[in-house]
Amino acid sequence: MYKTIVKDVGSEASAFIEESMIILFGDNAPDELSDYCYIIEINSIEGEITETQKVCIDDQTFEITKVGASVQKNLAELGHITLKFDGSTQAEQSGTLYLEKAEIPKIEIGTKLQIV
User: Fold this and answer.
1) What SUPFAM superfamilies would the database entry show (predicted)?
2) Distance between CA atoms of 40 and 24, rounded to whole angstroms?
3) 38-40 and 2-9: which strand pairing?
4) Which of the 8 DSSP states describes residue 83?
5) Can you tell me the distance from the alpha carbon of 101 to that of 28, in angstroms, rounded to the nearest whole number?
6) pTM above threshold 0.85
7) For residue 41, what are the CA distances in angstroms to 20, 89, 93, 105?
């Protein structure tokens, strides 16, 4: 339903890992934000992102627990969402895709991200 690849890693992209989150942005990320983001290819989404799906990061799979109201639009148009690995079932941030509580896997240039 959605596939992308990490093209670049900002120098401060790992800064939010302690807060169980990572920030994705397309290669059009503003300069003042790109240091804090994992830069991805902007690709189309086939269908609607829902809590019945999973996020795959390379060979690891994570349950989606909540989809923020802006996730679909932001991911399709900007490649910009936050992945939060805290198991939340309430969307506090509209641009956040909430995933099961888990340790964030290593993400580097070439890492594959999918929603299935």
Assistant:
1) PTSIIA/GutA-like
2) 7
3) antiparallel
4) E
5) 29
6) yes
7) 23, 28, 23, 19
